[in-house]
Amino acid sequence: MFSEALRIMDRNLERQMVEEIRAELEAKLAAAEAKAEAAEENAKKAIAEAAAKAAADAEAKAHEAAKAEIFRLRLLGKSAEEISKELSLPPNTVREVLSTANQ
Predict the structure, then answer these.
(1) Three-state SS sequence of the chain
(2) Rounded Cα–Cα distance for residues 32 and 11 (Å)
(3) Distance of CA 92 to CAs 6, 27, 83, 101, Å?
(4) Burial 16-41 (b: 16+ CB within 10 A, else e)
(5) What is the mean pLDDT of the chain?
(6) Sequence-ordered alpha helix ranges (H) in 76-90
(7) Are the C-beta atoms of residues 63 and 56 closer than 8 Å to each other?
(8) How far is CA 41 from CA 27, 36, 47, 50, 54, in A?
(9) Count of Cβ atoms closer than 10 Å to residue 84 Cβ
């Protein structure tokens, strides 16, 4: 009878320990998942920032190329209106670019 009580106590202790270990592992898993989600969000933000910077750089290069083309056409003797038509740019934009060369 005494050994039966000890066996039951051992089994209950074993179950309690298993439940504690399971709860500890679940908590660690949840923390690891949260950390992975945060890392993923940070990576997405970094990618978005890099893409925005690349787009801004590309736009700046395109703007500089357009300016260079305007000046090239002007050196060939074309008027602002002719340049505007050839490059499909608004006349005011062409005039603004050309006015910066005169300053």
Answers:
(1) CHHHHHHHHHHHHHHHHHHHHHHHHHHHHHHHHHHHHHHHHHHHHHHHHHHHHHHHHHHHHHHHHHHHHHHHHHHCCCCHHHHHHHHCCCHHHHHHHHHHHHC
(2) 31
(3) 95, 64, 11, 15
(4) eeeeeeeeeeeeeeeeeeeeeeeeee
(5) 93
(6) 80-87
(7) no
(8) 21, 9, 10, 14, 20
(9) 19
**Tokens read off for 9:** 């106590």
CA end-to-end distance (rounded Å), the chain: 107
- Which residue type sits at 52? A
Residue 98 CB contacts under 8 Å (≥ 6 apart), including other chains: 70, 71, 74, 80
At 54, the amino acid letter reads A
What is the radius of gyration, based on Cα positions, of the chain? 36
The answer to whether the CB of 94 falls within 8 A of the CB of 83 is: yes
For residue range 25-56, list pLDDT tens digits in order: 999 999 999 999 999 999 999 999 999 999 99
Tokens of 99: 């006015």
Q: Quote the CA–CA distance of 29 and 16 in Å, as a whole number.
A: 20
